[in-house]
Amino acid sequence: MRIDVSSYIPGSSPVHACDARVKVVLLAAYSAMLFFVRTWTGLGLAALAFVAVAAASGIAWRRFFGLLAPVYAVAALAVAFNGFSLDVWQAVGGASDAPGGLGDVSAGVLADVPPVVLIGSFGLVPAGFARGCFFAARIVLLVTASLVVTYTTTSTQLTDALCAFMRPLRRLRVPVDDAAMVFSLALRFIPVTAEELARVRDAQWARGAAFSEGGLRARLGAWQTVFVPLFVGLFRRADALAVAMDARCYGTSDVPRTSLARRRLTAGDVCVLVAGLAACAALAAWL
């Protein structure tokens, strides 16, 4: 059993060289913009922006779209629940009378197409199908945009960016350094947990555990033999980490932590930030 966990991919592209704080801010702006865009033109421009940035990163396209099976399932549900209705005529009337909002998106060329009755009152609503495709594309763009940041930014850079964003809270005596350390440890334990899960699962499978045989109850019982030692092992790792941090006197001083090489925003980073925020604001406001 092999689990491929999304992580940093080394590279020398302009996206890799961009400051982590800029990438996090632009990701937040891009995500917000996707929820404000209501036309297919705006969504197409947002997709074009993602394609341009992903191409500039130099990362293979399969890394963005090859591991999104759960996302595709959610997107398919969005299309199905919006495109089909148990009462097609009532669904059309309700959609036309619905107040405007973040969920009121354009149906494109299918807006005036009448519904197709399949069985009784159940049928396909073309306008709802188009809106479902809109929502599905929005979900996929949200996830893939976040992958651009995680693939081109190390966990240390993300932690430093979080610490920089929270630095003003030090005046309120918020433990910024501790919060950044917790965030860094959480990121580090994701691949560790995946590796431990694969190792324990392989060990139990070698001992005859039937993970794909029998009914649901039997399969859940087989996975129980995996999760119990997995959590025991994780608690052991956490205890060893706590002992190591305590032995190094972590947290015993009130002096703020320093950084060996604190990165400063360059003129190029500022230009990218301003241009990206302006583009996201323009798409959200006009499209």
UniProtKB/TrEMBL annotation:
Alphabetical list of Pfam families matching this protein: CbiQ (PF02361)
Quote the protein name from its UniProt record: Energy-coupling factor transporter transmembrane protein EcfT
The record's listing under InterPro entries reads: ABC/ECF_trnsptr_transmembrane (IPR003339)
Tell me which GO cellular component terms the UniProt record holds: plasma membrane
Transmembrane residue ranges? 43-60, 67-85, 132-152, 267-286
Q: Classify the main location.
A: membrane
Species, as recorded: Rubneribacter badeniensis
Q: Where does this one sit in the cell?
A: Membrane
What kind of membrane protein is this, topologically?
Answer: Multi-pass membrane protein
- Keywords (A to Z) from UniProt: Membrane, Transmembrane, Transmembrane helix
